[in-house]
Design brief:
Elements: H1 2-18, E1 23-27, H2 29-39, H3 41-62, E2 67-83, E3 88-109, H4 113-179, H5 185-219, E4 227-230, H6 235-241, H7 247-257, H8 259-279, E5 285-297, H9 311-317, E6 320-328, H10 336-402, H11 408-443
Parallel strand pairs: 1-4
Antiparallel strand pairs: 2-3, 3-5, 5-6
Length: about 450
């Protein structure tokens, strides 16, 4: 038992140290999507932008409060100086001085610009949140695309392996027939050519399969050495979901669920609020400030003893309080406020136009997606008929070829047609599934094969 445990521990250490392939169970589409959303760096980058906007909002709220500052200074002078504390010009002696002050100011009124800036920053925060959702949505569609592409290429690879088995078996039979004189050199060469062609299809399909798996792993931020199998969808069950599709229903749901539409609406609200901020420049601004200060000088003497007054005594006697109310009325500022307002209004019109373009593009995209789904459905059923027909034709030609009633070229053509029809049927099948999942993507349904 101890030896078994030691062996397991050693295997685990080898894996950690040398990066052996990680073997996972079957990777479902939902798991692939969730893994991507948890790990992808694009989402993390967008979330940082959202957090920066949170700090900007916090700063704009803090601008409503008065500021507060404290200062202290001290110095030593020798020679000709003017002492601020005593108000005297001093020659040929040294002087030690010190001072302290504390002050505060607040903008009482500024054309509601600070309030409107807070509202604008809240809208910007919503825009950044919708940007995170938009990136997630785009990544979900990318995962679905790569996942189904990997399944497609995997089935094409399996089909290619089955086809080369058939070709090798035919070559074996033709070699036997050639040895007894029932087949010609041309027949044998044709069979060898068929095997070589099918083996090339295996290599091509295997490379495409590995590349699509690599793309999927990169989306999930997984090691290229990770090993997993993919879940295949139930075609009949999935297509039943899309038996009845209404463009109006899909479009209305997309308007409620697509982050890009939500983002366009927030951009309009932000542009409108920026107009209010710019108009604030027309209003007077009112500022209130207050402060306290005191100081000390070694030249501040007691008139009776002619000795410098003590430090804390001077700080108590020399204290000063001050407050100030400032009003600034804008009269002419070289049309800067006017231009800022005009620019903000133009940005508002741009945002409205962008919203209209977004809705129009979504409308066109959904219309095209529904049309693509219906067309893919028809293509799949047509490809099934074509494959079944080509398989029947191949079997008939093979029976004739085996008894010498068909030549090798006819046999080669029939098998090639069957292979091509099988490949096309596989592609059409998963193209149909993908088009259906695109509809789910737009209406906000969970992307799953269940």
């Amino acid at each position: 038992m101890i030896r078994k445990l030691s062996s397991c521990l050693f295997a685990w250490l080898v894996f950690v140290c040398f990066g052996c392939p990680v073997a996972l169970a079957q990777l479902s589409l939902e798991h692939a999507i969730q893994t991507t959303l948890d790990r992808n760096l694009q989402i993390r980058q967008a979330q940082f932008g959202y957090q920066i906007s949170e700090q900007t909002l916090y700063q704009s709220k803090s601008e409503l409060y008065p500021n507060l500052s404290f200062g202290f200074n001290g110095g030593y002078n020798y020679g000709l100086i003017f002492d601020q504390t005593t108000g005297q010009l001093i020659r040929g002696s040294s002087n030690t001085s010190a001072g302290a002050n504390i002050g505060s100011s607040v903008a009482v009124f500024q054309g509601f610009q600070k309030i409107n800036q807070i509202k604008a920053n809240k809208i910007q925060l919503s825009i950044d949140a919708s940007e995170v959702d938009k990136i997630k949505n785009d990544l979900i569609l990318s995962v679905v695309t790569n996942y189904l592409e990997a399944i497609t290429n995997g089935e094409l690879h399996e089909a290619a392996k089955q086809q080369v088995k058939l070709s090798r078996e035919q070559l074996r039979q033709d070699s036997i027939q050639f040895a007894v004189g029932n087949k010609t050199v041309a027949d044998l060469a044709q069979s060898e050519n068929q095997v070589a062609t099918d083996e090339l299809s295996i290599m091509t399909s295997e490379n495409a399969y590995e590349l699509s798996l690599l793309n999927l792993k990169q989306l999930m931020e997984m090691s290229p050495d990770t090993i997993f199998t993919l879940e295949k969808p139930d075609i009949a069950e999935i297509m039943a979901e899309y038996a009845i599709l209404s463009f109006d229903d899909v479009f209305e749901k997309a308007l409620d669920t697509q982050p890009i539409v939500e983002q366009a609406g927030y951009n309009i609200a932000l542009a409108k609020k920026n107009i209010d901020i710019a108009k604030g420049g027309y209003y007077p601004s009112i500022t209130l400030s207050t402060g306290y200060g005191t100081n000390y000088s070694s030249q501040f003497l007691n008139m009776q003893t002619l000795n410098p007054l003590p430090f804390f005594t001077q700080f108590n006697r020399n204290k000063t309080f001050q407050s100030q109310l400032g009003v600034n009325v804008p009269i002419f500022n070289n049309n800067r406020t006017k231009v800022a307002v005009n620019k903000a209004k133009l940005s508002f019109l741009q945002a409205q136009t962008e919203d209209a373009i977004t809705r129009r593009n979504l409308q066109k995209t959904i219309g095209q997606a529904i049309l693509d789904l219906k067309f893919a459905n028809k293509q799949y059923f047509t490809s099934q008929v074509a494959f079944n027909s080509s398989r029947v034709a191949f079997e008939a030609i093979k029976e004739r070829y085996d008894v010498g009633m068909a030549n090798s070229m006819e046999m080669f053509t029939a098998q090639t047609n069957m292979n091509r029809a099988e490949f096309d049927m596989i592609r059409r099948k998963y193209e149909m599934v993908f088009r259906g999942k695109v509809i789910d993507y737009y209406i906000g349904n969970p992307i799953t094969f269940n």
